[in-house]
Amino acid sequence: MSTIESVLNETRIFPPSDEFSSQANVSSFQAYQALCAEAEQDYQHFWAKRAKERILWHKPFTQILDDRNAPFYKWFADGELNVSYNCLDRHLATQADKVAIIFESDDGEVIRSTYRDLHQRVCQLANALKARNIKKGDRVVIYMPMRIEAVVAMQACARIGAIHSVVFGGFSAKSLHERIHDAGAVAIITADEQVRGGKHHPLKATVDEAMRMSDTTSVQSIVVYQRTGGEIPFNPPRDVWWHEITQNAGSECEPEWVDAEHPLFTLYTSGSTGKPKGVQHSSAGYLLGAIVSMQWIFDYKPTDIFWCTADVGWITGHSYVTYGPLAMGATQVIFEGIPTYPHAGRFWEIIQKHQVTTFYTAPTAIRSLIKLGGDLPAQYDLSSLRLLGSVGEPINPEAWMWFYEKVGRSRCPIVDTWWQTETGCHMIAPTPGAVALKPGSCTFPLPGIFAAIVDEAGHEVENGKGGFLVIKKPFPSQIRTLWGDPERFKKAYFPEDTGHGKYYLAGDSAYRDKDGYFWIMGRIDDVLNVSGHRLGTMEIESALVAHPLVAEAAVVGKPHEIKGEAVIAFVVLKGKYPHGEEVARITDTLRDWVAKEIGPIAKPDEIRFGENLPKTRSGKIMRRLLRTLAKGEEITQDISTLENPAILEQLKYPSK
Ligand code: WT7
């Protein structure tokens, strides 16, 4: 892969400026090393100390790590807290009138919500949910546009101890249905429609479609936020309007105190089988991870205007929109729209307008903005920026340099943050006042995170050698289990063969360079990273074979200039091999089908038809050959086990 080659040759290094270091929370490499040494000495007390200092406890904890039932670790288990109290109430005495959220809608309308206002909105919705008999431990699916109300919905669940499960608004009815069903949700919070790039997209109608797909009898209430006033199906008494149920709801709601280990939320992500995994997070450990990473990696200061562009449908939006910034008492920007509407300078305009200091986005967004207007940032005053961040996939050095020079004006460090839905917060990322940056490397682990690269037997490999990325010791913000499937949790993350079931297996390959810097190479499983989003190849294959025309399908990734990876599907039809305009017609049909089955992000970029797929004699599809064909490269691998070599010719080029 070209990215890997270019990062292998990367020798540029960017030490932090004195100006940045002198004000930083971790202000030198020695200070970073001292934190690591403290954790090294006694990692449990290292975390306990911070959990005491930075979380407001209703009942203090006396136990730190409970590993008796490893890998089902518990942290601070006898403590009690409420996460929403930690994000809202704690600020009321000192900074109730500070703006918590600067919201900018798709069409440019700006709404400011202070901590007092946000607290009131959350309490009102929490009371309204309680009045609908939604209780501690109940699951609530949230399917919302990216607005203040999405944060309010999540915080209101946290306030009453309900477990939220946010489903990204771009997912289809089918995907939504699977998640509602798996979670056993009692309620859904949604909106009539969402607006992005000037276009309206249905949400409530999609919820209804999901509800019709059977087995969703658990759902008693659907709360609908009115975003557009568009025509929607509405079935009282199950369906209620957000504005009606909150109108007369009390503006104080005593938080539900929960155990440290009480699940704060589940969030579904793709794995290597067809079924998405419900990643379950804790309350206290998760919150602690969000807090320390805000301090160490985002170098958070009370004067910051923080902007993470991620949607709350992803973990990034959970940790760095809904929980991290609010726990810190920050002012943050939330933007409803897309970076290219109404023009390709929208992000830069927002930074200028709201004086953003910390800007956190994804490489795919950076690459598309370079393509659409590489010189556009120069037309805006971006002098408020002091720190940039990247997340979701490896950032190629060219995009890194552009981000650094054109957006950060060579003044702002870039924190390339490696982490996952399962880790809850940053794992490997530079403390920006301390660590010299190398474009394309996420640098070093956070203090207290014992990341390493191991071989198949679980032994650490030397620098320069690739291997499996693992985390050797438990950490507070880690995944607790997969919702309803503890066996799959153990198998996926603590398999016996790497680290003998003791290490957390991330599912990425990586290596460390001669200076010990970490470089992420990519997934080791059948998971693609398309525009920073995880997609299981099996999920897309299952969707394709569910179509009546399709007999068999195999999906692989191929490097893509903007999206990082593109989805390439090899398809065998039940009928005859298609020709001429049939190819285009069936391709469109299948692409639309996948969008309906999973969501538009999963649409194959290319479909190649064959009379068969390359298989071994035992009938196993040889995906590595398909990956080579997808890239348009010559096959140089050993094909002696291939049953039907002639098929390679047919699959070599896009079907005509
Ligand atoms: C996978 C996790 C948690 C952020 C959003 C994605 C890849 C994530 C980086 C990075 C290289 C990265 C990994 C990881 N990834 N950040 N900075 N450099 N790769 O969360 O959907 O759970 O995906 O994204 O492959 O395993 P996710």
Automatic annotation (TrEMBL):
The answer, when asked if Acetylation is one of the entry's keywords, is: yes
Catalytic reactions of this protein: acetate + ATP + CoA = acetyl-CoA + AMP + diphosphate
Tell me what PTMs the record reports for this protein. Answer: Acetylated. Deacetylation by the SIR2-homolog deacetylase activates the enzyme.
Q: Which residues bind ATP?
A: G392, E393, P394, D416, T417, W418, W419, Q420, T421, D508, R523, R534
The positions annotated for binding Mg(2+) are: V545, H547, V550
Q: Does the keyword Cytoplasm apply?
A: no
Q: Where is the AMP-dependent synthetase/ligase domain?
A: 89-474
Gene Ontology cellular component annotations, sorted alphabetically: cytosol
Show the GO MF annotations.
acetate-CoA ligase activity; AMP binding; ATP binding; metal ion binding
Which stretches make up the Acetyl-coenzyme A synthetase N-terminal domain?
Answer: 32-87
Q: Where in the sequence is N6-acetyllysine found?
A: K620
- Tell me which stretches of the chain form a coiled coil: none
Cofactor(s) listed: Mg(2+)
GO terms in the biological process aspect are: acetyl-CoA biosynthetic process from acetate
Keywords annotated in UniProt: Acetylation, ATP-binding, Ligase, Magnesium, Metal-binding, Nucleotide-binding
What EC number(s) would the UniProt record show?
6.2.1.1
**Domain AMP-binding enzyme C-terminal, first and last residues per copy:** 539-620
Q: Which InterPro entries match?
A: Ac_CoA_lig, ACAS_N, AMP-bd_C, AMP-bd_C_sf, AMP-dep_synth/lig_dom, ANL_N_sf
Residues that, per the record, bind CoA: R196, G197, G198, K199, T316, S531
Q: Which family does it belong to?
A: Belongs to the ATP-dependent AMP-binding enzyme family.
Function noted in UniProt: Catalyzes the conversion of acetate into acetyl-CoA (AcCoA), an essential intermediate at the junction of anabolic and catabolic pathways. AcsA undergoes a two-step reaction. In the first half reaction, AcsA combines acetate with ATP to form acetyl-adenylate (AcAMP) intermediate. In the second half reaction, it can then transfer the acetyl group from AcAMP to the sulfhydryl group of CoA, forming the product AcCoA.
The protein's name is: Acetyl-coenzyme A synthetase
